[in-house]
Amino acid sequence: MLPDEAFRPPPEPGPPPADWQESCFYVAHRPDRPGDVLALRITSHPGRGGFDCLQLGRVDGTLIFARFTRRYHGDPVTTAAGPASVRVLQPYRLARLRVAPQPGVPVGLDLTWSARTRPHLLPRGRLAVAGRLVWDQRHLFQSGWFDGSYTVAGVRRPVHRWWGQRDHSWGVRAHHRCPMWLWLAIQLPDGMLGVWCWEGPDGARQFCHGCWAPAGPRPPVPVTGFRHRLRWTGADGRPVGYGRDGAAVAGLAGRVEFTLAGGGRVGVVGSGTWHARYGRRGGGQHHLAVVTDDGRRGTAVYELTGCHHHRYFPVRRGDRRPG
Predict the structure, then answer these.
(1) Whole-structure pTM over 0.90, yes or no?
(2) Closest to 172 measured CA to CA, from 45, 85, 266
(3) Which of 37, 63, 40 is nearest to 53 (CA)?
(4) b/e 34-73 (16+ beta carbons within 10 angstroms → b)
(5) 138, exposed or middle or buried, with CB in 10 Å at 0-12, 13-18, 19+?
(6) CATH assignment, 20-305
């Protein structure tokens, strides 16, 4: 059964864990080619007593970033912080995203998200590293259309039928101690391929679930197998090592393969560049042009992050919480 769309307190009694959070994440991009990417993530942190909202993306080839915060002050449910807000108008069908243009706001937003597929709820996942809980969450994702506008330097730009993703997750996530997670939202003309994959430093699979969600009312088909062979690329498109902090990295490319319940298989090849970098947390998000083995073309968001992984983050970084 799907949960309702309202934000909720931690289920356990007593003080909430420091890393317990609930968040909604939206990312919008053009359906026809790589270009501007608009992302908004609003997160409730009961342990901190407030909301944190991140505005991320890429506009005219430049990465954008802003952070807005709000203390609860008796209201732990209204998903708003500073000039930013996310409001669910119809559960799993319609939501509105706003960031009011004002000083300190890199890009104003007024977007409506409408469902393109049915939602898919992942099973609960849990990961501990060296006896310390890193992750214990539920996660839901759903593809959608975005319509409205964004404002850059006082100039309004229309958004019409951009596609993209919205996620809703809740539970413990200590990002700074995560060895590696890979989250994919691949948008194709006939639906969305999505997966969330967690691995240990040696590549041992800890959690991997996802789906093929057809456009329209048909139910999603669960992913039963997943393989990834990605590589960091430099400004010239050639493979580069991540090193410690990814200083030489400009993009991400490679192949992923999905096995679906019922035996279907889908291979996807893609390449693209950053639209969000995570600094000391490692990695970030890329916007890719993709093509499937059967010739379907689309665009996608790949999030690859972590502090230590034999393939993607071979130089271990400390698990000290970033500031």
Answers:
(1) yes
(2) 45
(3) 40
(4) bebbbbbbbbbbbebebbbbbbbbbbeeebbebebebeee
(5) middle
(6) 2.40.370.10
> CA-CA distance, 223 to 259, in Å (whole number)?
6
Amino acid identity at 280: R
181/145 Cα distance (integer angstroms): 26
CA distance 11 to 43: 17
CA distance 149 to 76: 28
Give the number of C-alpha atoms closer than 13 A to the C-alpha of residue 53, restricted to the C-beta side. 22
User: Phi/psi at 176 (nearest 5 deg)?
Assistant: -65, -15
Closest C-alpha among 209, 208, 205 to residue 220: 209
Q: What is the distance between the alpha carbons of residues 5 and 189, in angstroms, rounded to a whole number?
A: 27
Domain positions in the chain: 20-305
pLDDT in tens, the chain (323 residues): 678 787 876 766 677 778 999 999 999 999 888 899 999 999 999 999 999 999 999 999 999 999 999 999 999 999 999 999 999 999 999 999 999 999 889 999 999 999 999 999 999 999 998 888 999 999 999 999 999 999 999 999 999 999 999 999 999 999 999 999 999 999 999 999 999 999 999 999 999 999 999 999 999 999 999 999 999 999 999 999 999 999 999 999 999 999 999 999 999 999 999 999 999 999 999 999 999 999 999 999 999 999 999 999 999 986 554 43
The residues, ordered by sequence, that sit 6+ positions from 114 with a Cβ below 8 Å of its Cβ are 93, 94, 144, 145, 147
Asked whether the beta carbons of 104 and 91 are under 8 A apart, the reply is no
Helix (H, G, I), strand (E, B) or coil at 220: coil
Under 8 Å between Cβ of 149 and 171: no
